[in-house]
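Human: If only I could read backbone structure tokens as easily as an amino acid sequence. Take your time, and here it is.
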Amino acid sequence: MTFFESHDARFARFVMGNAPVKKLATGFDWVEGPVWFGDAGCLLFSDIPNNRILRYTPDHGISTYRAPSNYANGHTRDRQGRLLSCEHGTRRVTRTELDGSITVIADSYQGKRLNSPNDIVVTADGAIWFSDPHYGIMTNYEGFAGEQELPCHLYRVDPSGQIEAVLTDFNCPNGLAFSPDEQVLYVADTGRMFSDDPQHIRRFDMTSGRPKGGKVFHSISAGCADGIRCDRDGNLWSSAADGVHCLAPDGALLGKILVPEVVSNLCFGGRAKHQLFITATTSLYAITLNRVGDQKP
């Protein structure tokens, strides 16, 4: 079976011919938002339509971490190791404290309800960045159909709790990732539901902690970019309709990891952060790479 498609000689150093794409679990409806917990040796991810967050451990397989999950989508960890989650059902971003209690990070902006927070990252200064497209309120499949009160923005929440709309010229911002040195921000625009908006990844240079520019970095040729992650060398790994695409820092397509389902998201994990976990429609996959992810902590 062919697991890879090379488009640049550099890609040969990133993959190993004897490391297969493994299906770890299946039978879900639309899985998203993987996040690795190295200290617990497990992966958390969302099965959005079934309103649950699932846990995968190599020794025990799948179990339920939280149900109901308020139709949670994307997750990350903050610098203290706490879980941050984007919830469609409650239209908010939350933090799970170390004692299990829930703190609301953001649920409104300028007196109006958020749409359906989607993906999330934390920077070294402790700021929380999240995208807020409208996918979770357009139908009842991934949450509850409801009125859209705000445009689809990308937000930054200061450690003090102040929320700011930092990018406001997207149709629907989705996946986001910073380069390892946090000097570049990548944001996927997947377009408004039921429209033919352009779909691409945009690149922003960070100046004094704020994104500037925003030129198109890359347009995925099979489907569109949804979840995105950087490795420690600054290569960007993106979801796509045919698998995972690896992009060089200059935007060139280096190669593809072929997956038999539409990929929604991905994250690095495992004992050396050298495994790529892939959420793809109804299943969870993983592959071992000759790369190390940039996730923190």
The chain is about 0% helix and 45% strand.
